[in-house]
Amino acid sequence: MNHSINNTDRPPYGILAVLMIGAFISFLNNTLLNVALPSIMTDLDVETSTVQWLSTGYMLVNGILIPTTAFLIQKFSVRHLFLIAMGLFTSGTIIAGLATMFPVLLTARMIQASGSAIMMPLLMNVLLVSFPVAKRGTVMGVFGLILMFAPAIGPTLSGWIIEHNSWRMLFHFITPIALVIFILGFFLLKDKKEKVNIHLDGFSVALSSVGFGGLLYGFSSAGTKGWGSPWVYATITIGVLSLIWFILRQSKLKEPMLNFKVFKYPMYSLAIIIMMVVNMAMFSGFMLLPIYTQSILGFSPMESGLMLLPGAILNAFMSPVTGKLFDRYGGKILALTGLAIMTITTYSLSNLTFETTYSYLMLIHAIRMFGMSMVMMPIQTNGLNQLPRRFYPHGTAMNNTLNQVSGAIGTALIITIMSTREANYASQLTAEVTGQMTTSLEQHIALESMLGGINDAFLISAIIAVVAFILAFFIKRATPMEDEEDTSDKIVSNHSKQPAS
């Protein structure tokens, strides 16, 4: 392309193909590593509390950098940003594959994350400016296929690789693909961008980093350290205060780093709220089902991954279908249908027993993911559709940032509910024992308590899903609105055309 991407021209399919493949690789790499954590602990001689930083650190870097992408997208061309993002991701992947010490591996993961953080907002912004509102559902559905298919195959692929090779092969496998995508981007992306005279406010970056970083770290730590830790409360409090300062500062800046005026558009605000609520509810299935199948039913990690695979694949391949349905019928009917399915299936998972079958779990999870496919992308697309064009970078950055934060909150909430209820059940069952406590009885009480905690956590997740279902009744089909600047410009323009009296 010889011009900036414009939705009045033919959509830049070449650019979109390169961006989507790059995004797919970065998403895939993130899900590959989770299964490998036990192997990394053994090989590099680190404990669970240490190795989890490979996931927490990745999430923190994303949470810190994503808010800056609104500025980066406005300042630089798609080609420039893509090459930086893919270059960082590829460099981190190479270093991680060669790492022999944990600090080196953690640093490499953070370098990867810095590239991945730019990739998704960049791709979403290109999609928004390249297609008219009437076709956005379909194209966002294809994007959803890419987004969902990576985590669908990630755990199973990772389990197979780990069974036959070292964990380093997870990075060696990605490296040549990432290099090829970088080279393709270098030669195929030709878009140019006029020089934009905007500057990044350094103090806003610092406040955003401390704010979002503090929230993400605090809620993530609550899942492992527990809510009794002063460190958890301290980091969350610092994060909240920094965010309040950050928001107040953005309202006074002529060129805000992240423009909170996006929230004056009601369908966008509603979409953000529903997305955050759904994020919090959906983490229960991803976290609790593997714990249940491995710790209580005794399945292997590979079997757990295979149990989740049909649902994940169904969710991925339904995404283009729901995209087309969204273009035809709008987001409300899809969201209500999907959230009803999610609520019913999540409630069904709150009644698990020691006799629950593998096939039942696979079926319920698949139906749950089918419902989720009707919720995530349609709601998000409907919200973004209401924003004026100049707010697209800020809208996509806000979306991705709050998805990270709500995911961290959901994870902490679910783990807290499960562990608290598990401890309560253990105390009750132990108190009911009248004879001598044996080892087998202790093990049974531990499993019974864990099962009760998991069921209660699923029940709370179902209640959270009901909240999202009620909110979905307020969804209306969104169309782009003119913002105050555009309106005032038109008034001035029309006034200047009036003949002098």
Automatic annotation (TrEMBL):
Membrane topology category: Multi-pass membrane protein
Keyword Transferase: no
PROSITE patterns membership: MFS
GO cellular component: plasma membrane
Cited InterPro entries: EmrB-like, MFS, MFS_dom, MFS_trans_sf
Any one Gene Ontology molecular-function term assigned to this protein's record: transmembrane transporter activity
UniProt entry keywords in alphabetical sequence: Cell membrane, Membrane, Transmembrane, Transmembrane helix, Transport
Subcellular location: Cell membrane
Parts of the chain that traverse the membrane: 12-33, 53-73, 80-105, 111-131, 138-157, 169-188, 200-219, 231-248, 268-292, 333-354, 360-379, 457-475
PANTHER family named among the record's database cross-references: MAJOR FACILITATOR SUPERFAMILY MULTIDRUG TRANSPORTER MFSC
Record protein name field: DHA2 family efflux MFS transporter permease subunit
The species this protein was found in: Oceanobacillus bengalensis
